[in-house]
Write a structure and sequence with these properties.
- This protein has 161 residues and is α/β, with parallel strands linked by helices.
- A five-stranded parallel sheet has the order 2-1-3-4-5, sandwiched between helices.
- Helix 1 packs parallel to helix 5, helix 2 packs across helix 3 and helix 5 runs antiparallel to helix 6.
- The chain starts with a strand and ends in a 5-residue tail after the last helix.
- The chain binds ligand C2R.
């Protein structure tokens, strides 16, 4: 069983959430990916969240858009950290998703990322950082990732004119 589950409210979220998947793959991390909706598949959502710990998940990355209740509802049921990704919605540009995910009541945390692809990428990196706390090999990959990112910034200076 994978350490990480990437879940999302709809297939339409995958274009965003695949950015998280790509980063986890770069780090050699196994993950499951599922479409689970608090609104459209509430029984499935309850089943997924209530068995997440027993199924071995250490982290859940949950993307949802609009009335984005999925991350918070999963966090309410599961005893596994939930990282929320607000999907950039058409009507309100993802501000609705952000507010829905971030404004959790005290007692039920969701680690909320930025709207859209940056949020999906950061969700994956946050997951890597959490798992790297007791995995030295993964920590070494994180150091290398950071160094590579810095190199890219330095190289991009060549584009200044
Ligand atoms: N926010 C939620 C939930 C939920 O929170 O349970 N289920 C679906 N959705 C969102 O509805 C948006 C539109 O979905 P469709 O594109 O399928 O109409 C998606 O961004 C999805 O995350």
């Amino acid at each position: 069983m994978a350490d990480i589950a990437i879940i999302m409210g709809s297939i339409s979220d995958w274009a965003t959430m695949e950015k998280a998947a790509t980063i986890l793959t770069e780090f050699g991390l196994d993950f499951d990916k599922k479409i689970v909706s608090a609104h459209r598949t509430p029984d499935l959502m309850f089943d997924f969240a209530s068995t997440a710990y027993a199924n071995g998940y250490k982290l859940i990355i949950a993307g949802a858009g609009g009335a984005a209740h999925l991350p918070g509802m999963v966090a309410a049921i599961a005893t596994v950290p939930v990282i929320g990704v607000p999907i950039e919605s058409h009507a309100l540009s993802g501000v609705d998703s952000l507010y829905s995910i971030v404004q959790m009541p005290a007692g039920v945390p969701v680690a909320t990322m930025a709207i859209g692809e940056a949020g999906a990428k950061n969700a994956a990196l946050y997951a890597v950082e959490m798992l790297a706390m007791n995995q030295p090999d993964l920590h070494a990959k994180l150091i290398a990732y950071r160094a590579n990112a810095a190199d890219k910034v330095a190289a991009s200076e060549a584009g200044l004119y």
